[in-house]
Each structure stands twice: as C-alpha cells, then as structure tokens.
Amino acid sequence: MAFRRRFTPSYRAFLRQGRRSTSFNGDFGLDDLFHEHIESAEEEDVDSDDDDDEMGYIEPLLYDEKMEALWVAEKAEMLKRAAEEKAREAERLERQAEEKERNAERLERCRKKHDAVIKSSIRRYDPKAKCLVWTRFPFEDFSSFDLDEESPVPPMQYTNKTYQTECSMNCSANILSVKVVSSDVGFPIHVYGSVIARDSMDNKCVYLFRCHRRDSQLIKSEDESLILTGPARGLLLIDFIFLETDLKIKGERGQDKLLSRGLLQIDGRILCIREDIKVRGVTCASRLSTVEVNYVVVKSAVEATIEIQVPHGKFYGEITAHTTSILHRIVLYDSKAGGVAMSDNSGAIQLWCRVIAVCLNEKLMLTVDTEASNGIQTIQFIPSLNGANQHVIYCGATKLCLKVTWLVITE
C-alpha cells in the first residue's frame, strides 16, 4: 500500500512564504510546478479528512436491536444478583458478628458461674492447714455440671448381657472403712454428714456415707468406723477415684461444728499395675480432725450385688462380706446397730452396703453370725461375668435366702 506524506498547515504556510527562485530564475517553470504540487496535496488532505469523518458515523452492519436489549437485560440482572449477593454477605457478616457477641456473653456468664462455684464450694480456707485447699472435685465445667447430683448409673444394669469368650476387664476399689483417727475436741462425738466417691464413669456422686443430723452416729473412739451405706454401684478405677469428706459434729442447742471437709484421691494409674494386693489408706487432716479412708484395689473386677431375704421369722445377728485375698470384713448388716431384721412385704433385709467388687479369679465369702445354735455360717460364691447365684441357709428357725447378681464393671 503506497504511503502519501502529509504536511501540517504551519509547514505549508512556511513553504508558501519561503519559496525562492532557483539559480535558473524560473526559466524551466519549477516554481509553478512546485506550487501546483503543494495545492494538490492540500486538497487530498482535506478530502481524506472528510472521508474519515463520514466513516465515523457508519453503523455496524450486524447490529440487532433485540440482541442489544437482551444484553442490557442480562447485564441488569447480573448487577441485581451482585447487589443481592452483596446484601446477603453483609447480612451474613452481621449475623456472624451478633452470634460471636452472644457467644462471648454466654462464655462470660459461664466463666462467672464457674468461678463462683469454685470460690464458694470447691476451694476454701482451712484453719488447720492455714491455707486455701481443694475440698471438692474440681475437674468439670461448673457452669453446667451439678456437684451434688447423684450418679444415675444403677447396679445390675447389664446383668443379662451375653459376653464373648474374651471380655475387657477393669480395676475397681472397695472402700473398707472411714474412721476419725483424731479429733481436736476429743471423743465421744455425734457425727453426721457425707462421704462421697467419684469415678471416671460420670464424675457424679456415689455416696459411701450419708447421715442426717437427726440420725447422727455416735463415735466413741478413733477405732470406730462410720457405718458405710454405699457404694450403690461398683466403682471404676481407671485413672482416679476422688473422695470428698463433709462431716460435722452435732452440738447442743444447734451449735454444730465442722469436723472434716477435704478431698482425697486413689490413683489407679499406679495401683492398677502393682502386683501386691493389700489394704491401703489415705488421710485427710482438716478442720477439727484427721479422717482415714481404708481401701483395697480389685483387679479384673466384677460387681457383686447382694440381696438377702427373710421369708418368715426374725433375724438377729451380723452379716459381713470379704474375698479370698482380702480378709478384711465389710459389714453389710448388724442388728445391734440397725435393729432386728424382720420380714416385710418384700421380705428383703435393708442392707447397709449391698455392692462389692470381686476379682473374677477369686471368691466372695458371705458370713452370717447369729445367736442361733448353728452360730457362724460362711457361704462361698464364685464370680461370673453375668447372671446370678442363690443359696439358702437356716439360722435356727429363720430362713435366709441369699442372692448375688454379677456384672462386669465397664465405662
């Protein structure tokens, strides 16, 4: 394509004014030829500019008014959707901010409630220790956890369950006795209150001793144990069993004194791997006394729930339980302290403690000591993973029906 040079208006004026004759003094007509050439170039430039202006107003050959309207509508719809999406995003961020604020307020309320429980019930000043001490189980969220709620897990829950040839067994512990081994106010004292156990099954209250003020127990010396009325189910010993003491002395004219308030623990992480099986103890020195809790760890434990019925007659005597490895007797019933056991509508004796943990490889011994002519009788029960064993004995004219129901202690 040929290229035609264009001259600017100022340059054209310069050429007109600056024409000079050549050395030939126009003999050959060069000035006229040059002048005609310049004017022709100017005319072509003007024509070219006019053509360019006319081309700028030519419409596209493929223009479609309907397509243009559709495109405009689609663009408007896109803008509308973008605006709606932006509004939804702003609303979502607003809801998220409100939810975050509500969560922060809820957490603050929970924290205040938790701290209030810690301050009022769990960590208190002990004049005997002369410092703040833990008096109750502290490892829960107390904005929702009720410290005083009793464990809902009953005994004999899965006694009819069928197990395979191999079954996972856990450790347990039997609380043998709770004694006030020293008293700053001396003896005798009338004691009431509670001793609670908590295990990893649910961390809720399993009462070992619970006595109201009107039924306070007389303790004459440091050798006497509190009458244990629990546990109501087998205790699970995987990591810890926590023990809480809250005992008071019944005084005259309502002037009661706080005898013991403290927290003890049985560490199953160590005790469950030891080979020696023996009676162990933990002590709590607080307030006006020192309380000692004796216990024994039971490996491969099953829960034994004991029931004793008297179909007819009256029972005078004492009923105790122990295992083949630990001869320390757990008192289940004593008519000297609990009164005469008589047959009622169900015929069952209200035992003080009716749940004991037994090693699957040992035997449970129930001893019945009466004033009858046949004296002391000991009945052996062989543990199993489930089911029940029954035995009938006669104490003089009184018939006793003994039943032991077995259950594996699991989480």
From TrEMBL:
Organism domain of life: Eukaryota
Keyword annotations for this protein, in alphabetical order, are: Coiled coil
Q: One Pfam family, short name please? A: DUF6598
| Location of the DUF6598 domain | 173-404
What InterPro entries does this protein's entry cite? DUF6598
Point out the coiled-coil segments of this chain.
73-117
Q: What is this protein identified as?
A: DUF6598 domain-containing protein
Organism (species): Urochloa decumbens
